[in-house]
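Supplementary Methods, section 5.1.

A reviewer requested that the exact input to the structure prediction be made available. We therefore reproduce it here, unchanged from the version used in the analyses.
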Amino acid sequence: MTRAVVVGAGHNGLVAACYLARAGLDVEVVERDTVLGGAVSTVERWPGYRVDRGSSAHIMVRHIGIVEDLDLGACGLEYQDLDPWGFAPFGDESITFWVDLDRTCASIEAVCGRKDADAYRAFVQDWSQRNLKVFEAFQGPPTPLRLGRAIWGAGKGTGLDGLELSRQFLTSGDALLDAHFDDERLKTALAWLGAQSGPPTHEPATADLVGWNTVMHLRPPGHPKGGSGMLSEALAARLASYGGRVRLGDGAARITSAGDRVTGVVTASGEHLPADVVVGACHVLTTLELADAPVLERARRTVRVGNGIGMVVRLATSDLPRYPGATDESYRALQLLAPSRQALRRAHGEYNAGLPPTAPAALAMTFSAFDDTLAPAGKHTVTVWGQWHPWQLSNGETWDAIGEREADKLIAAVDRAAPGFAATVEQVHVQTPEDLERELGLRQGQVMHLEMAFDQMFLWRPLPELAGYRVPGSPGLYLCGASTHPGGGVFGASGRSAARTVLGDLSPRPLSRALRKVRRA
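The structure derived from this sequence is encoded token-by-token as follows.
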């Protein structure tokens, strides 16, 4: 039986392990952490409070069929829809984004007027169809043919010629918003949501970071009942049903080889696990370092990890943030707390200078409002994400010294939108960029592993020679995870694609190759 070791028990590694084990391989996952799931995990942070450690809103994984294909519902995974999926308060007025486009347009019309509501309807109908084709490109290795088909398919229904279509994809998100809408509040909410991958929407080639969010009108984000980590728990249960194993608290210390071929993994405890295949489901640089791969030095010099993205504050509270005009349904939504696009640009400018933001934009999440497993009766958990907090500070300060101060800024950002919220906070857990690195192994606090800039996506992520999930010069060594196509977020696509690549390499199809040769002739 072919043996495979997967390094890292994040959700992509677990997805890869499930597909390999289902195909009949003997699979073991090794993980240095004692908590399953990496950045998709949930712990009891205080007695009675279940709190996510990393990602919370699951968007992309719900669009690509992995949950259904592996029947994770039978393994205990129960998604609760985030519908509405966006709530943007501006003083006494607010815009609510529902899956139902009519309800969303009615909310926009009440605040921004009929013209912007009609423009938003047309925008969603156009860009959601474009991004269904882009999502197809996300579900396999990023070959030029696959990418070309996605772009052609995305443009087919628009009536645009290739030059105009490419211009729209390569423009900035802000330029795209300015071309469609008038009201700054609508543009701010969409820009803040579009910035969640890291790049600000005033930079080139960020248009689709705004446009792809329209797919949430086709299917909402979800949060697993019991916490984000229930996805990882369900994947581990499915892996066990296929005969696979997960080893926690004993991660990889070295990837071994004989000649140029991978032979296994030595764990931190000193045990050697022989393997025909090793899948690095951790950071790409970590995998290459463990294997001392020939491409390591080029990767160190070329790939951009970036100076972190942001920080998180996890709160136990006596009440929800009471936004003016909010309803009970509003607390299912991602709460988009950015006052203006100018404020977003100011925060990003300070980040570029290596400074913590003077007035951070915030995104709040309140899953305990509809999931009674997360907090004691009458209490709540509130997560506040703040973008553009640099991992390396330029002003001589340290994150250990200023973490609480910066956490207070994020709480204050929620309090400005929901007056009185700060007084409800009873417990605070701060995750600075350095904490994200220490706790979750996220290098330089980069939650996407590598910057999600255009030149580090698709065929170029993490490098052209690594984009197909194989490591050149190291037969038997493969990559998956946020460092690889299609990037960060709760997705699972890279884990499945890497597993399919492994299985294709292990099971060559001579008849298919012969047929292709005949057709070419």
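Residues 3-43+228-304+448-511 form a domain with the FAD/NAD(P)-binding domain fold (CATH 3.50.50.60). These observations are discussed further in the main text.
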